[in-house]
Amino acid sequence: MNAGPGVATRVLAAKVLEAVIHRGRSLKGELVTALAQLPDPRDRALLEAICFSALRQRARYDAALQLWLQKPLGEKDGDLRSLLLVGFAQIDAMGLPAHAALSATVEAARTLGRPHQAGMVNALLRRAQREGFPESDPAAAWSAWLRKKINLEWGEHANAIFQASAHAAPLWLRVNRSKGTRDEYASRLQEADIVSSIDPNLSDALRIDLPVAVSALPGFAEGDASVQDGSAQQVADALPLGPGAHVLDACAAPGGKAAHLLERDPSLRLLALDVDQRRLNRVRETLTRIGAQAEFRVADASDTQTWWNGEPFDAVLLDAPCSATGIVRRQPDVLLHRRPEDLSSLVALQARLLDGVWKTVKSGGVLLYATCSILKDENEHQLSRFVARTADAQPEALDARYGHAAGHGRQRLPGEQGMDGFFYALLRKRNSH
Ligand SMILES: C[S@@+](CC[C@H](N)C(=O)[O-])C[C@H]1O[C@@H](n2cnc3c(N)ncnc32)[C@H](O)[C@@H]1O
Fold first, then answer.
1. Is position 300 annotated in a ligand binding site?
2. Would you kindly state where each structural domain of the chain is located, as residue ranges?
3. pLDDT of residue 433
4. Is the C-beta atom of 253 inside 6 A of ligand 1?
5. The domain defined by 171-227 carries CATH number 3.30.70.1170
6. Which segments of the chain have a pLDDT < 50?
7. Nearest CA to ligand 1 atom 18
């Protein structure tokens, strides 16, 4: 039997979700393999949109299944459950026309070897379409230990964090200053019928609330604009740099922040370091696309003996590996995969990185510590411990544009001003005399 149009996309989406939800696989990794099987870019975009929407809204859809199914799905029904999430996401979060979503998803049940359950899939999708979804708590998507931590640490803000993390982010663009002004680029978008807005606190950013494919963005391939969340763009504002400064980007891959710094000042002498060779190659690609120059090095930044030639840096950016709890809306599988022991090893790694790269900052120079985490262990507590054990580290204040006051730094929570959750802390090295 020949599967109807769109069936293959639904089958692949169900397989991706099954691997991510039931077998601990990463969404990014599974998507790479699945996307390679779809030649049409529209199908690829649909596959991604289904997987992200289903994972973001997983708690709501699970709650509906619990209510609607007389007998809960068994352990061996991971693919069926995933297919139902695929169907729900299309009807609900993505608002696709029901006829297309329904028939392709029901057909996908057959392709997945479950012809005897196609009727049930059909009935559940029709019910969802008719009744909508029951009220449910977005916090249910978070594992108990993380939920407890967020409630404890963020109290009155916790609900807003859970809500914001279940919704798609707007598309934030960073306009390449070295190629033209933001106003000029906004006009080019307008000519292409793409509506964008500015944020008064972000000088290079344009926000697009109805996301479009990057291929539709004028001059994207030439590096006239890049995709980067507003919070990530603020890193360049928080790091004070003189012209031609010697800069270390200690955890540089995939290179968004290095690119931004170099677009602002191509005269910087920037060393892009990352422990992961393949990821560092992406920094090279990113910088090539925007036409910027840098030095590259694969190394563990904390182990300065292996890579540092002793010439101090005016400024160090430490955009540290973290729990990614501030960007759950972009990486919804974080909620399925983070374990308490991951957090302890991340906190230890961040401390090692801080101690290591601090040695490379020149007297009077600065270090900006940033994470896309909202957990205090990785952010304000990490910084308090560092400042307490580091005699020459002097915290410098960042203003309210960077979010809530959080110890020696500032914390933006997910969704605030439409941006990702992010932490920033600026430290200056006291002159040693
Ligand atoms: C949050 S990402 C950095 C994002 C990057 N700054 C950007 O704007 O595109 C963290 C990076 O740290 C790298 N990393 C992890 N441990 C490291 C280490 N010990 N030394 C250097 N890089 C490390 C990871 O490979 C990852 O690319």
1. yes
2. 7-136, 171-227, 230-429
3. 59
4. yes
5. yes
6. 1-2
7. 300
